Amino acid sequence: NVRLIDLLIAKGAKLDTRTNNGDTALHIAVKFNQSDAATTLIKHGAEINDENQEKQTPVQIAILQDNADLMCLLLKADSDIKNPGGDQMPLIDSIADTGKVEFLLRALNTIDNVDQKTLYMNKALLRSSQHGDVDLVKHLLDIGADIESSNQCGQTSLFLAGEYPEIMAMLLHRGASMQ
């Protein structure tokens, strides 16, 4: 599989060739959970943030397919966790929306910059509070998300968790301000 990819590229195969629905070879490798093929394509310069016709990048496909290993591989290879599609939902929101603690923690661990990691932790805390994800809120608080962080409208996790008494109780128990 990998040797065939190496051979095809050596013979001039183009990494940016697309299928009818806009998938590149990297999209296809991710769709079929082929980590070795994805690694080889990345090594040869495959464009990690390309979108197919459904506006999905390879890392978004990995998330949708519950493949944390491929997600991390793509994030470490510099997939844009901030905003892969310009006006699309930031990738960290997509990861938080899965409700999968492992995915979010592994994605956060690919970020070296402490300030950036903190920003994304806080953003994920707000998102998971708003969506009622008790486990994710708990884990984010455990790893240091700021309970008083707020979104652009000034809303904190406590405010956003208004529909979820269990999350509100947890946030209050952990010191969230009612101001």
From TrEMBL:
InterPro entries: Ankyrin_rpt (IPR002110), Ankyrin_rpt-contain_sf (IPR036770). Keywords: ANK repeat, Repeat. ANK repeats lie at residues 21-53, 120-152. It comes from the Eukaryota. PANTHER family: ANKYRIN REPEAT AND PROTEIN KINASE DOMAIN-CONTAINING PROTEIN (PTHR24198), ANKYRIN REPEAT-CONTAINING PROTEIN-RELATED (PTHR24198:SF165). This is Ankyrin. It comes from Umbelopsis ramanniana AG. The lineage of its organism: Eukaryota, Fungi, Fungi incertae sedis, Mucoromycota, Mucoromycotina.
